[in-house]
Amino acid sequence: MRQFNTTPTHNIDAEINWSRRHLLDIDSFSRDEFNYVTNTALAMQEILTRPIKKVPALRGKTIVTLFYEPSTRTRGSFELAAKHLSADVVNLSPPASSITKGENLRDTLRTLEVMGADTIILRHHMAGAPHFAARHAKSCIINAGDGWHAHPTQTLLDIYTIQKYKKSVEGLKIVILGDSRHSRVARSNISGLTRMGAYITLCGPPTLLPFSIGRNDSVQSMLKVELDINKALDGADVVIALRIQKERQKAGLIPGIEEYISGYQLTGHRLKQAKPDAIVMHPGPVNEDIEISMEVVRCSQSVIDEQVANGIAIRMAILYLINRGNG
Amino acid sequence: MTSKVILNNEDIRRTLARMAHEIIENNKNLNNIILVGMRTRGVPIAQRLADNIKSYEGIVIPVGVLDFSLYRDDLASRNFYPVVRQTRIPASIDDSVVILVDDVLYTGRSARAAMDALIDLGRPAAIKLAVLVDRGHRELPLRADYVGKNIPSAHSEEIKVRLLEVDGIDQVLIEKTSPGAEVNTDAAV
Known about the structure:
The complex is a heterodimer of chains A (327) and B (189).
Chain A: H1 31-48, E1 62-67, H2 73-84, E2 88-92, H3 103-114, E3 119-124, H4 129-136, E4 140-146, H5 152-165, E5 173-177, H6 184-195, E6 199-203, H7 217-220, E7 223-225, H8 229-233, E8 238-241, H9 257-264, H10 268-271, E9 279-281, H11 294-297, H12 304-322
Parallel strand pairs in A: 1-2, 1-3, 3-4, 5-6, 5-8, 6-7, 8-9
Chain B: E1 2-7, H1 9-26, E2 33-38, H2 42-57, E3 63-66, E4 97-105, H3 109-119, E5 126-134, E6 146-150, E7 157-162, H4 164-167, E8 171-176
Parallel strand pairs in B: 2-3, 2-4, 4-5, 5-6
Antiparallel strand pairs in B: 1-8, 7-8
Helix pairs in contact in B: 1-2
């Protein structure tokens, strides 16, 4: 049922003038830039199929992962990506309690620079921390998630994953299901996927939908809100389920997990409203049988495991592209 | 800038016919050979050599595509990163004779990078090198096993190979750049 494309569907010879030294958000990415990154990732994915998964491209580069928030797959996949490209990797996770945005972060960045970090991969609970870092550091900065603001590599890997299963992102109906208010993944995906020409439907309890969506008319026209899950899923090409952040339940935004499950859990029955060849995605980690049923996680339409694998290829592409011009 | 045609489409056709015959002559077991084109213009040349061998001997030689950009020795030293494309080798290279195919052999640095890239994919019985044009000026101790045409050239000159599949025309040109003009970095490796 699923088609797996290994060849690019767009003009791969399109010359593009890539000059980015940082990856802070994807709000200024053009369609050509998205395709340039996903094409580079296709080449990187081939390396991952080899018995010896290593190329010398970033030999001698020092890459630091600086994570002020916990992470499994993002950090792991950045570290693997850097190692597959032969960079030296240092992992730092300062205790979140001792850090506030401002001088402390700046001091940490300066220390890393003195230590010779070429690229700093930063995850921070404060929105805008990577932008702050980029203003003050000479190293390349990659945003691995900042507060509720952005998670650019997740969006790049989601676009890459969709391109592999669908001919193009353009014209697809994509449903983002769940807590899109507190989700940096939702915010980046709305920005990136609409720019690639997809129509987005946000679905979830009203208290978990964003206060305002889309900063300009071009995004607004591609975006709608549907509170009824069956209507939202009707004819969908892609369903992206978001994690219910259990810690936010205490704020009283939803009456209880049971109510959420009965109203918004992605079940096999509800998924039948979508197109038969629709794919199911989730940025992870999955709360099993809360936002998505285990049956759907394991079904043939689920590409959740591929997302994790694709994340390594996308992050190799980004590390390679960002480090250019830094020689 | 002056340019002169060194090989036209008929010359290229005859040259690739001769090279295919040389490959047949020098390799007793043609079933053990893989032709691997070095991106970009080595790829159509490898395909044409395979087509020629098939029409002369009836044996289908697998043709692979190698992108060696991640193995270049100038990645760290210049603000120049090539576009990375996919590598596709249709068969295992272990214990087979791999013939690397490129359009121009110049400093030898591309061939060095390609050999490194290839060895990361397996352990071939032997690696050989076939080029349409050898223009001299080697900076590494290597030579080609199959050469279409030797074109002695000056550093200031540029050899341009144009192929039907990529450029819409079969032609090899030599161009004299005026002194002081910028050298095309893409052709320098």
